[in-house]
Amino acid sequence: MDEKVIIKKIQQGNRDALGLLWKSHSTNVLNLAFRMLKNRDEAEDILMDIFVSVPGKIQNFRGESALNTWLYRLTVNECLMRLRSKKRHAELEEEHIELVTVSAIGSKHEEQLDYDPELLEFGLSKLSAETRSMLWLKDAEDLGIKDLSEIYNMPEGTIKARLSRARTVVKNYLQENTNYA
Amino acid sequence: MRDQIDFSRLERIKPRENSWETVCARLDSSKQKKFLKFVQARTMYALAASLIVVSFLAVFTVFNRMDSETLLITNAASDELVSWYNDLGETSDDELENLDTYQSISYLLQETK
């Protein structure tokens, strides 16, 4: 079904249209929330909160951006609000960085192709939740800089700079820890 | 793109099987809540409207009574005035000055007796 038709039907309160949106986007929303919060249960809560709020919030959606971009924006904002309200952001980062120091690291020397996924998780933990989600959306979900600029309400240049810095941090981390293994 | 981080080996989680049902249940309960709020609001509006009507009627009744009393007084006063006015010139003692003079002469005559 066409995206505009789905939007219109959800605006009219059609549950089946919301179901279609769930089928096509719930996994992406969940994974983005999971990347940001690093907690499966909380990510699931965010996913459900987002979809419960969609019928209300979509009334003001003018269709200027793609539906997935809009959903990602809702997700990022919801996750950031949750992180702020719990004041857990810094604690989570520290917790994971500490874990990294005691973790068993893979023995492969090749850069990206043979990294330990767990190691990448730890490497990503060095980034803030927002930057981590940005990197996830760009490199895993293949979103464009323009979309990211809309989602995070930042200039494209800032997005590019943050992505570049984030990649450097993660790659350096992977390289250092892989070499020491 | 060579510069990208390869996330392909990271775990990609899927929503739990009952998540969609939970979303539907939450949506239904929020609908019910909205309906209850709507009913409550309507009841409140009806009550408020009834109160306004009752108080308006009470105020209207009080004013109506006050008006009819004022009207009676006004009517009585005007009747007296009209009759006094109509009587003017009809009798010899209708003028107040004459009446006063007559009364004072009568009084003096009684005193001199």
Radius of gyration of chain A: 18 Å
On the 0-100 scale, what is the average pLDDT of chain B?
Answer: 78
Structural class of chain B: mainly alpha
Number of helices of chain B: 2
- pLDDT under 50 segments of chain B (min length 5)? none
Query: For the report, how would you describe the main beta sheet of chain B?
Result: none
The amount of beta strand of chain A, in percent, is under 5%
Number of domains of chain B: 1
**First and last CA, distance of chain B:** 142 Å
CATH architecture term of the largest domain in chain A: Orthogonal Bundle
From the alpha-carbon coordinates, what is the Rg of chain B to the nearest angstrom? 45 Å
Oligomerization: heterodimer
List keywords for this structure.
heterodimer; A: 181 residues; mainly alpha; Rna Polymerase Sigma Factor, Chain: A; 2 domains; 9 helices; elongated; B: 113 residues; 76% helix; rod-shaped
Structural account:
The complex is a heterodimer of chains A (181) and B (113). Chain A has 181 residues and is an all-alpha fold. Chain A folds into two domains: 87 residues, RNA polymerase sigma factor, region 2, helix turn helix motif (Rna Polymerase Sigma Factor, Chain: A); 94 residues, Winged helix-like DNA-binding domain superfamily/Winged helix DNA-binding domain (Arc Repressor Mutant, subunit A), CATH 1.10.10.10. In chain A, 75% of the residues lie in helices and 0% in strands. Chain A is built from nine helices and no strands. Chain B starts with 18 loop residues before the first helix and ends with a helix. Helix content of chain B is 76%, strand content 0%. Chain B has one domain. The interface between A and B is medium-sized, with 31 and 22 residues.
